[in-house]
Amino acid sequence: MTSSKVDSDTLNELLEFHWMMDMIQTVDVGIVVLNRNFDIKVWNGFMEAHSGMLPSDVRDKNITKLFPEISSEWLKQKLKPVFELRTRAFITWEQRPYVFKFRNYRPITSSAPYMYQNVVFSPLISATGTVDNVCMMIYDMTDAASAKKQLLELQVRENEASEQAS
């Protein structure tokens, strides 16, 4: 009786793990897990679709070597408090338009050549209590950024027009 209970529990855990992995792969947010050496451990479907690189192409490779637009010194400074203090770090598209230079995949609805991104860096605390990995979550902010830029341009034009009228 005990072995069938264990088998049932194990099966339930495997089923839960499977749907969680499916969720990570299909969510419309980039998920990248990096270790302390900036080697990629997880690369989800969003990242695959926008980079054209399969998880097998990037796993255990250094992110700054695969993406030269990401400065290793900048990333080191950004991730230091995440690893050491176990705090989140954030980047908005207004501070830095993108971390990954992905093409804008909505050229009809947006004039931006690249995907504007917000990025959240979260510490992943291991079972031993250490932070050996960091999760990057990359959000496509292209539509919001384009709308804000259009609004600002419109405001500038209205201000210029009202100054010329007076």
UniProtKB/TrEMBL annotation:
InterPro entries: PAS, PAS-like_dom_sf, PAS_fold. Pfam families: PAS. Residues 18-84 form the PAS domain. This is PAS domain-containing protein.
